[in-house]
Write a structure and sequence with these properties.
The protein is α/β, with parallel strands linked by helices. It is 38% helix and 18% strand.
Length: 741
């Protein structure tokens, strides 16, 4: 039987949140500008080599507005404003900001290839003692220039004469050079929106709409989440989106991207009511909806891809219908996290083979048309690729372009030809991750943020009753709708960490504060207090020395009442995913004492088939003494899944203590000692004592750590799975005790 043609729908989602305190202010983060010169335009222009290629883009309205602000209104962000400032006018705070923020790029692919920039990076992180006075004015100028240069897409680095000239200079950058770099950024950004409009008019791409400030729609549409019906806010977010889209592209959008791919029956009913013809969701939501788990082999290939490649029609209580397609879930993860670690051509061939495998398994499909949907973030993963993903994407598009049994499609065109869509009368409420909404609600910090939104909204409604100025009322509602955006809640609480959570926290509260200022009303005190509580920050420090009895059980006589305490909040998914509830710490003249209150639900998961339970859970304790660290110290040995390094991770330590659980039982404690040249050696004989029954109690002798009386011992704790760090306690500062004399 001849191969049946398979249609492919690529959907690249382009999204940034609101980085301004108000519409006329500068941006507190530079990511719209930097992704503007690295991703948004070249993702279009690389299509020019492939005449048959059709792509779909989701471009969030607030991103369009931000691009206009950079290109037409020439607003700055903090980074670009400093870049065009004479070095002689920089104060100490500016210089510290530069040292902390102007190396914020992928080290391997964006810093290391440029020798002069890499040298500055190495100097910056060569020692904890490095300060603002260790860099000359010329070095500050070069750091700012390099940071902005490396974010140019490789295409511009190769082909744009002015960019090439600046890169070839390699150093001694002047103020005029830095001003020119920012001007070149704006030159590229100004081309982005007209290019999207042109490519859509030429029927090469289709652009999806997105509710204006990217809110999680099911939360707004079901009062069970917040206690308040926020449907009117959801309607306004969509109306503003349609209006923006029509002004920019001169047509009404047919498809809509649900923010974070969060959907529900009420969300689909509203989309249909607002005139949208189709939307896209994740295969996990489909699996829950039709009560069918999609089986995969050990390579992640679907055993039967039919359901995921079918087209659906949802008919709601309002009797209106909207078409649905569901994205395949493994391929986006491969593009985001895996393929960047491999040869780009080999990675492209692997994805092509996955596409062909799906095609071969659809030979017996009863449908005339089948659609494999590959939908994912279109901007954030590419810096992990050696050439910003150019080699991988071009190789992939080339393979598809030259395969006449494959076609890439505009989704509206494809769905208009599908006559017999499978009908769904309900849809599971969920998102692209974990098939639920728990990354945006149902966690202490996230829930508190939603309470702030609801309370401020109540005040706004009351203030508006007595206000005659429609502009003030309209501006206040916009601030409220900004605060409903998904990004704030994604970063609040656990488990996500941007490395700049405090800025997201500040911006979220600022937009609520703006509402009170607009109406000239007193700002509630709680809005001036950061929501963020760093996980692992001690609830209390030791009150006095302790000498607990180590028996591993909780007794009526509390031996730890004067100890310091760290409380570990629940993650957003399941309490059973959290191995430790609390950590206590303290000392006497002989030992450092640690107590771990274990989460029994976690330790009881021995029969969980999804876990390789053997060695699943480890706790590492890294310790150091400044006197010893000058001669022998080493970096931590656990791997991390994060691009952002916490300060505690960058330090060097003199000792490592490993607590290892084997099928819920403790193995012997391993202590390692740092040697010269940053190496670790196992300390074969150590006197660490422990007891584990209900709780884990540990005593680490100061003598084993070579700590003298009255000396300070600094330490922090890592929870890990199979040597990969999950959590750090604390993240920002070390814990410390002083050995009593």
């Amino acid at each position: 039987m001849a191969q049946k043609k398979l249609s492919l729908a690529f959907v690249w989602h382009m999204h940034q949140p609101v980085y301004q305190e108000s519409r006329n202010d500068y941006f507190l983060m530079p990511w719209v500008r930097l992704h503007g010169v690295k991703d948004y335009l070249d993702m279009l222009t690389m299509m020019d080599s492939f005449p048959r290629l059709k792509l779909n883009f989701s471009v969030v309205p607030i991103l369009l507005t931000a691009l206009e602000a950079y290109g037409n209104r020439e607003l700055h962000d903090l980074h670009s404003k400093l870049t065009v400032t004479p070095v002689s006018e920089l104060n100490d705070e500016d210089k510290l900001f530069i040292l902390n923020n102007f190396f914020d790029a992928n080290y391997t692919n964006m810093i290391l290839p440029h020798i002069k920039y890499a040298d500055l990076y190495k100097k910056r992180y060569s020692s904890d003692e490095i300060g603002i006075n260790d860099f000359s004015d010329e070095e500050y100028s070069d750091i700012m220039a390099w940071f902005n240069l490396v974010w140019f897409d490789p295409k511009w680095q190769r082909e744009h004469p002015a960019v090439k000239s600046l890169l070839n200079k390699e150093g001694h950058y002047t103020l005029e050079d830095r001003i020119k770099i920012i001007e070149l950024h704006r030159e590229i950004i100004k081309k982005i929106i007209p290019s999207y409009k042109k490519y859509q008019e030429e029927n090469k791409i289709e652009i999806l709409a997105t509710p204006y400030f990217h809110p999680v729609m099911p939360v707004l549409l079901d009062k069970k989440y917040t206690g308040v019906d926020l449907k009117s806010d959801a309607v306004v977010q969509i109306e503003k989106c349609i209006d923006k889209y029509q002004k920019v592209f001169n047509c009404k959008p047919k498809g809509i991207w649900p923010p974070e791919q969060c959907i529900s029956s009420k969300t689909l009913e509203l989309f249909a009511d607002m005139g949208f013809e189709w939307t896209v969701a994740d295969e996990g939501v489909l699996a829950k909806t039709i009560n069918k788990e999609f089986v995969r082999d050990f390579k992640g290939y679907l055993e039967d891809p039919y359901d995921v490649t079918a087209s659906y029609k949802f008919v709601g209580k309002n009797k209106k219908s909207i078409s649905l397609i569901f994205r395949e879930a493994v391929i986006p993860n491969l593009i985001n996290f895996e393929y960047s670690q491999h040869n780009p051509v080999e990675a492209a061939n692997d994805l092509y083979e996955r596409i062909k495998t799906v095609q071969s398994k659809l030979k017996q499909s009863p449908d005339k048309n089948n659609l494999l949907t590959i939908a994912l973030d279109g901007e954030n993963c590419w810096e992990s690729y050696p050439d910003d993903g150019e080699g991988f994407i071009n190789a992939l598009y080339d393979l598809i372009e030259n395969d006449k049994t494959l076609e890439t499609v505009l989704i509206s065109d494809y769905l208009s030809k599908v006559k017999n869509k499978k009908e769904l009368k309900t849809i599971h409420t969920g998102s692209w991750i974990n098939r639920n909404l728990k990354l945006w609600i149902d966690e202490p910090t996230k829930n508190l943020a939603w309470q702030y939104v609801v309370k401020t909204r109540e005040d706004l409604v009351n203030f508006a009753k007595d206000c005659k100025d429609k502009q003030i009322i309209e501006a206040a509602w916009e601030e409220l709708h900004i605060a409903e955006g998904s990004d704030w809640f994604w970063w609040f609480g656990e488990p996500n960490d941007s490395g700049q959570d405090e800025i997201f926290d500040y911006l979220f509260r600022v937009h609520l504060i703006n509402i009170y200022n607009l109406f000239q009303k007193p700002v509630p005190n709680y809005l001036n207090v950061p929501l963020i509580v760093y996980m692992g920050k001690p609830l209390r420090y030791p009150k006095s020395n302790i000498t607990p009895i180590l028996n591993g059980v909780i007794s009526k006589k509390d031996n730890w009442k004067n100890a310091g305490c760290i409380e570990i909040p629940d993650g957003p998914i399941l309490h059973s995913n959290k191995p430790i509830d609390k950590i206590y710490f303290g000392c006497d003249k002989d030992n450092l004492y640690l107590r771990f209150d274990m989460n029994k639900a976690y330790l009881d998961r021995k029969n969980d088939s999804t876990l390789d339970y053997l060695q699943h859970f480890q706790t590492y304790i890294y310790l150091k003494n400044e006197r010893l660290a000058h001669s022998n110290s080493a970096n931590i040995r656990t791997l991390t899944k994060l691009d952002t390094a916490y300060p505690t991770m960058l330090d060097k330590y003199t000792h490592e203590v490993l607590l290892l659980f084997l099928r819920g039982k403790m193995a012997p404690v391993l202590m390692s000692k740092a040697q010269k040249d940053g190496l670790w050696s196992l300390k074969l004989s150590n006197n660490v004592k422990f007891a584990f029954v209900d709780i884990l109690e540990v005593a680490i002798p100061f003598d084993d750590l070579n700590i003298k009386p009255k000396e300070k011992l600094d330490f922090f704790i890592i929870n890990a799975s199979l040597g990969v760090a999950n959590d750090f306690y604390p993240k920002d500062n070390l814990l410390s005790v002083i050995r009593p004399s």
